[in-house]
Specification:
14 helices; 2 domains; six-stranded parallel sheet
């Protein structure tokens, strides 16, 4: 295969450590290890949350009102455009359909470049948490227009593809799932000393939530569910891993929980593996990286019956899928698992079996195949 160049445009690459930034950094490292040149365009800050892979061209950005930890790119300035033209990519990969993504799309069309996109954040599902549902129609209209110019759109799950198609986004939609580091996340990381350090007893049943603490992760439903079951079963205890602007609000609702703050690496793996049940009622995921990590640590998972999560959890097999508009069923599912060690063990085995299908190397190799295919189709000489 002849080497080629990829220009990657994203709204998040190093200023926040989340599923999007980690996925894209892992992709860039994979591509560069394969001998493919990559140039990344995106916002940054003075003290980024992670050390990024590859070369990043910073673009102007503003803090998003009400969510200052996130940034919105506002332009593709002249100096960045000169860098782009000098780089002369074969593929323009747009990871965020924001202003920067729009500018990248415009430049790529004008210069007759191959355009692909990846769908990471299900923005329309966020609107209800900020009382902005009235923008949903316009949002889908813009996304339909934007992705119509992309020769391939990489989507993390079949359920997400179905949702996009139902909202008029058609074309060449391809599965680019998310992977998991099985050398880090494993049931072997279970540690009774870790549990004791955070005040848990051996008999406690730890119900864990892992994510950025923002309201669109359905924090209230998590809190309500744990409180409902713990009221009947005092062995049920809550563990919250993460940080964010909703931390104080969640503490007020769930004061008896253990809050570790943001964890990474072995400490994060120990938090999962030392838990007993993973409860994640977020209905805004496009995939559900934390659910996959929990599965890889052998946890049964109770998740929202929504896009992303339902591609990972088979209801009644490795956990439960529950509609978010039926909160009492979350409590029922948690009560079942909390009162049956045998059921937890059975679902643990199924979680491990399913998580073994998600190798990062295999998943990114698949994306490389997509790149090659679309370039072959356009040029006929790679």
């Amino acid at each position: 295969m002849k080497p080629f160049k990829v220009a990657l445009f994203t709204g998040n690459y190093n200023h926040i450590r989340d599923g999007v930034s980690l996925t894209l950094n892992r992709l860039v490292k994979f591509l560069e290890d394969a001998g493919i040149e990559v140039l990344v365009f995106g916002p940054t800050i003075d003290e980024p949350a992670l050390e990024h892979q590859g070369r990043l061209i910073a673009v102007p950005s503003l803090s998003i009102p009400g969510r200052p930890e996130y940034r919105m790119s506002i332009s593709l300035p002249r100096d960045a455009r000169i860098e782009l033209e000098h780089f002369n990519p074969d593929i323009v990969h747009i990871a965020t359909p924001d202003i920067l993504g729009f500018k990248a799309l415009k430049w790529a069309r004008r210069n007759e470049k191959t355009i692909v996109a990846s769908y990471h954040t299900h923005f329309p599902s966020y609107l209800k948490y900020y009382k902005l549902q009235f923008l949903e129609f316009a949002g889908w209209k813009y996304l339909k227009w934007f992705y119509s110019y992309c020769e391939q759109v990489f989507v993390p799950s079949p359920s997400m593809i179905e949702t996009l198609k139902n909202n008029g986004i058609v074309g060449d939609l391809r599965i680019w799932a998310r992977g998991v580091d099985t050398s880090l996340f494993s049931p072997d990381k279970r540690d009774e000393t870790w549990r004791e350090k955070y005040g848990f007893q051996q008999s406690d049943i730890i119900v864990t939530f892992v994510s950025r603490l923002v309201w669109e992760k359905n924090l209230k439903l998590y809190a309500d569910t744990v409180k409902a079951v713990a009221g009947k079963n005092p062995d049920v205890k809550s563990l919250v891993v993460g940080d964010g602007p909703a931390m104080d609000g969640l503490r007020a609702m769930l004061p008896d929980a253990v809050y570790t703050g943001f964890l990474t690496g072995d400490e994060l793996a120990a938090a999962y593996a030392s838990s007993d049940i993973f409860l994640f009622p977020s209905d805004t995921e496009t995939f559900g990286n934390v659910t996959l990590e929990a599965m890889t640590c052998g946890l049964p998972c109770i998740v929202a019956d929504a896009i992303g999560s339902k591609s990972l959890v088979d209801n009644g097999e490795n956990g439960y899928l529950v509609p978010v508009n039926q909160p009492e069923k979350f409590a029922d599912a948690l009560q079942k698992l909390a009162t049956s060690e045998e059921l937890r063990k059975k679902m643990s085995i199924k979680s491990l079996e399913k998580s073994s299908l998600y190798s990062w190397d295999q998943i990114n190799r698949q994306l490389l195949t997509y790149y090659t295919e679309v370039l072959n189709r356009n040029s006929g000489h790679l």
